[in-house]
Design a protein that fits this description.
The complex is a heterotrimer of chains A (about 290), B (about 260) and C (about 325). With about 290 residues, chain A is mostly helical. Chain A has a domain at about 20-215. Chain A is about 75% helix and about 5% strand. The longest helix of chain A is centred in the first third of the chain and has 30 residues, at about 1-30. In chain B, the strands form two sheets. Chain B has a six-stranded mixed β-sheet, with helices on both faces. Chain B has a four-stranded antiparallel β-sheet with strand order 2-1-4-5, with helices on one face. Chain B is of the alpha/beta class and about 260 residues long. Helix content of chain B is about 40%, strand content about 25%. Chain B has ten helices and ten strands. By secondary structure, chain C is mainly α. Chain C has a single domain (about 40-305), classed as ABC transporter involved in vitamin B12 uptake, BtuC (Orthogonal Bundle). In chain C, α1 (about 1-30) runs antiparallel to α6 and α3 packs across α9. Classes of the chains: A mainly alpha (about 290), B alpha/beta (about 260), C mainly alpha (about 325). Chains in contact: A-B, A-C, B-C. The interface of A and C includes residues 111, 263, 276, 280 and 292 of A. Chain B: GO terms for molecular function: ATP binding; ATP hydrolysis activity; L-isoleucine transmembrane transporter activity; L-phenylalanine transmembrane transporter activity; L-valine transmembrane transporter activity. Chain B: One of its GO terms (biological process) is L-isoleucine import across plasma membrane. Chain B: Keywords: ATP-binding, Nucleotide-binding, Transport. Chain B: InterPro entries: AAA+_ATPase, ABC_AA/LPS_Transport, ABC_transporter-like_ATP-bd, BCA_ABC_TP_C, P-loop_NTPase.
């Protein structure tokens, strides 16, 4: 059944969006910044993965861990250099800076290694197929889905059961109060970036394994879509990003399935506009009023 | 002075989710009165102002100005009907000059269209000239005309507060809402403010509703006082009555009310 | 006395404008400038129009719209359709391009009313993308391969459009309507409370700003022989955004200066697009950290020429006096 196939594709795609969306939502939740450069961290993760596999001959798990580690550090660097000085600036100034960082990473990458795409080898993960409900599921899809699920569960654990997670939640509610309670706000923010970027890096590797082709500007569209997913679920709300990502992936696949595949990129933006018009706080969000 | 009150608030309330920020408030203001609105922090006083000015739409009850129902009108429409206000935290147009801040309040009276301004038709020039003259006259009344080209954000605090009141008045209200105008002022400044309020009330035939925490100010200028606590009206009356009202004293938890 | 100064300023501007036009025309028809310089000049004028139109939306009215390339695209394609498919004269096509973009501006402006800051930015970005994707999929306008367009743009058209754009936006800004928009930027809640119909003015700003972006689109389309959806992505929107941000949010002369400077930089870095983008991005980041006010802050260039600080003049426009 075509429908079930597309559903499965949608969930695979959606889990990639979800992993990226988590980084957006965590950062927005804690410092109210839309990290435009997040999609480019995803790209960096994909490239790190590529070079690790082809250049160093590493296998899946080490590659995943390496990409996550590199992106983690990268994300913290960006935060410390470009975003920290703007902690007290207007939101627009921070947004413009994020755009600048994003452009810098993209064109810096092109400058350094050219704009040509690369192809992930297709044999990193075992590829057998299963047939369920008339649809074909590759073991690759399952692997990817499994990895995503594990990462999300890990994230939930960190956020709810560890000290740093508690600090993250505290700072996102009220940074000043958290500071007064003895929480190191700067480190907590950096940790948030670290975790979010690690997830984006993982998403990059997963994307490469699943879709094979990677190139320096690959982060732009998935980045924007992941942001839409975060808004869809309720920006700043972690389960919202997971649900939003999966939902968006499924919607996109279904739109493609009913024949409008040329418009699939537009889906995310239409969803965005609809959400912003009808329910700006997202599926899980609450309305926050400006104090007059 | 007719028997119809200028402002009639009937059982007004607003609910945010599960929280009733204001509920069951009944109030009347007659033309020319100077009435105070007091209550502990978080009582809902500014929320009440926001209801009167259309920032919030009441979820219950109605607000009538000169017999006309205001519920659901946009803030700018309510302003044009005759209610103007100042804010608890000063909201001036920082990058505009003192003169321009006041001119903005005259905007709703301007009759020249966007097209006329773009094409620089005669109606634009006459309209702008009129606004300029009126605004300068206005600043003179408030002794701010010497500062007319200063950027509002560069003014010292006391003058910013004065400018905000001047601007609110330039909108030609029948009812002026002042939200903690004396906040952050020393006794000398507060005295000058009291004189200013008395002056503008007489000069502009205004009705004034005043939120304040400064009790000497409130007791000194207000003819009547409403007391709000937890979003509900707990007392109303003359300053003497309020001063001795046990419910009011309790609401402030033993704070000096006199 | 002030009246005479204003009248002097007015006539001075007219003479200056005429002079620039004549010089430009002479340089071009006399073939003193080669096509590289002519193209750069035209590009500069188009960029100034774009910068000034975005300045009205972001700088004056405070609506953070970062999908401006969408309006450019609408104007470009609408005007191209009118010349190439409907055989209409260039002037009509330009006007249609502007109007079509203005309609798009209304469509964006109205839902944007309830959105603030970041959300508005993302929504406008999304809109820009929707336009691009839409054009990508419509065969009537050539889809991904784009549309061929005759070269109808010349110095007269470019200069005239530039002049009209600047005059309209300066006149709008220096009036009660401009003040209304600035009050929205400064403090929307207070603007509401002072009787400003903020909805109306936000929409008006979008409509006027997008109209001129559409005009720029028409000029752009008829200058570069071919238009493709890829020309109008968010990179183009960021290009325009940088003009306004570098110039100083709130300063029209800043936007003009930045547009001129960056067009020149861009022209010389034509063969090194990555270097150009890296420079742009560094400029953005460094500026936001160290001088968020941009080159001019909210000041205008005329303020350096007048000894007495002047507020918004109600008198005749001399073409340069602007708000705050």
């Amino acid at each position: 059944m075509e429908f079930v196939q597309q559903l499965i594709n949608g969930i695979s795609l959606g889990s990639i969006y979800a992993l990226i969306a988590l980084g957006y939502t965590m950062v927005y939740g804690i410092i109210k910044l839309i990290n435009f450069a997040h999609g480019d961290v995803f790209m960096v993760g994909a490239f790190v993965g590529f070079y690790a596999i082809t250049g160093l001959g590493m296998s899946f798990f080490p590659v995943l861990l390496l990409a996550m580690a590199v992106c983690s550090v990268f994300g913290v660097l960006i935060e410390r250099i470009a975003y920290k000085p703007l902690r007290n600036a207007t939101r627009i100034a921070a947004l413009i800076t994020a755009i600048g960082v994003s452009l810098f990473i993209e064109y810096g990458t092109i400058y350094v290694r050219g704009a040509q795409p690369e192809a992930y080898p297709g044999d990193v993960l075992p590829s057998t197929s299963f047939h369920i409900f008339g649809a074909t599921i590759s073991s690759q899809s399952l692997f990817i889905l499994g990895t995503s699920v594990v990462l999300m569960v890990l994230l939930q654990f960190i956020v709810h059961k560890t000290k740093i997670g508690k600090a993250m939640r505290a700072v996102s509610y009220d940074a000043e109060a958290a500071r007064l309670m003895g929480i190191n706000v700067d480190n907590t923010i950096s940790a948030t970036f670290a975790i979010g970027s690690a997830l984006a890096g993982a998403a990059g590797v997963i994307f490469g394994l699943y879709y094979i082709k990677i190139e320096p500007l690959m982060g732009i569209i998935p980045g924007l879509k992941a942001f839409v997913a975060a808004v869809l679920g309720g920006i700043g709300i972690i389960p919202g990003a997971m649900v939003g990502g999966l939902l968006l992936g499924v919607i996109e696949s279904l739109v493609s399935a009913v024949g409008y595949s040329l418009w699939r990129d537009g889906v995310a933006f239409v969803v965005l506009i609809l959400i912003l018009i009808f329910r700006p706080s997202g599926l899980f969000g609450k309305n926050v009023r400006e104090k007059v | 002075m007719a028997n119809t009150p200028l402002l009639k608030v009937d059982n007004v309330g607003i609910q945010f989710g599960g929280l009733k920020a204001v509920s069951g408030v009944n109030a009347e203001l007659h033309q020319g009165e100077l009435v105070g609105l007091i209550g502990p922090n978080g009582a809902g006083k500014t929320t009440f102002f926001n209801l009167l000015t259309g920032v919030y739409v009441p979820t219950e009850g109605q607000i009538m100005l000169n017999g006309e129902r205001l519920n659901g009108l946009a803030p700018y429409q309510i302003t044009r009907k005759g209610i103007s206000r100042t804010f608890q935290n000063i909201r001036l147009f920082g990058e505009l000059s003192v003169l321009d801040n006041v001119k903005v309040a005259y905007h709703s009276l301007a009759r020249h269209s966007i097209l006329s301004s773009i094409l620089r038709l005669p109606s634009h020039f006459s309209g702008e000239k009129e606004m300029e003259e009126k605004a300068i006259e206005f600043l003179k009344i408030f002794k701010l005309d010497g500062l007319r080209y200063e950027m509002a954000k560069n003014l010292p605090y006391g003058q910013q507060r004065r400018l905000e009141i001047a601007r609110a008045l330039a909108a030609h209200p029948k009812l002026l809402l002042l939200d903690e105008p004396a906040a952050g002022m020393n006794p000398q400044e507060t005295r000058e403010l009291m004189e200013l309020i008395a002056f503008i009330r007489k000069e502009f035939h205004l009705t004034i509703l005043l939120i304040e925490h400064d009790m000497p100010l409130v007791m000194g200028v207000c003819e009547r006082i409403y007391v709000l606590d937890h979003g509900q009206l707990i007392a109303q009356g003359s300053p003497e009555e309020i001063r001795n009202n046990p419910k009011v004293i309790e609401a402030y938890l033993g704070e000096e009310v006199s | 006395m002030a009246n005479i100064n204003r009248k002097k300023g007015f006539w001075l501007s007219i003479v200056l404008a005429l002079a620039v036009y004549v010089v430009g025309q002479v340089l071009i028809s006399g073939e003193i400038l080669n096509s590289f310089y002519i193209n750069t000049l035209f590009f500069m004028a188009i960029n100034i129009i774009l910068a000034v139109s975005l300045h009205l939306i972001i700088g004056i009215t405070g609506q953070f719209s970062i999908g401006h390339a969408g309006f450019l695209a609408v104007g470009a394609y609408a005007s191209a359709i009118f010349t190439m498919k409907l055989q209409m004269p260039f002037g009509v096509a330009l006007l249609v391009g502007g109007l079509a973009a203005a309609v798009a501006g209304l469509i964006i402006g109205i839902p944007s009313l309830r959105l603030k800051g970041d959300y508005l930015a993302i929504a406008t970005l999304g809109f820009g993308e929707i336009v691009r994707i839409f054009l990508l999929n419509v065969d009537y306008v050539g889809g991904a391969s784009g549309m061929q367009v005759s070269h109808l743009t010349d110095w007269t058209w470019v200069f005239a459009c530039l002049l009209v754009t600047i005059i309209v936006i300066v006149n709008f800004t220096n009036s009660t309507h401009g003040r209304a928009c600035i009050s929205i930027r400064e403090n929307e809640i207070a603007a509401d409370a002072m009787g400003i119909n903020t909805t109306y003015y936000k929409v008006a700003a979008f409509a006027i700003g997008s109209f001129f972006a559409g005009i720029a689109g028409g000029l752009y389309a008829h200058n570069f022989y071919i238009i493709q959806p890829t020309n109008f992505g968010f990179l183009k929107s960021f290009d325009i955004l940088i003009f306004v941000v570098l110039g100083g949010l709130g300063s029209m002369s800043g936007a003009v200066i930045a547009a001129v400077l960056l067009t020149i930089v861009s022209a010389f870095l034509q063969d090194y697009p990555e270097t150009r983008m890296i420079i742009y991005s560094l400029v953005l980041v460094i500026m936001m950290i160290y001088r968020p006010k941009g080159l001019m802050g909210t000041k205008e260039i005329t303020q350096f020429f007048t000894k007495k600080r002047q507020g918004i003049e109600g008198g005749e426009s001399d073409g340069k006096h602007t708000a705050a």
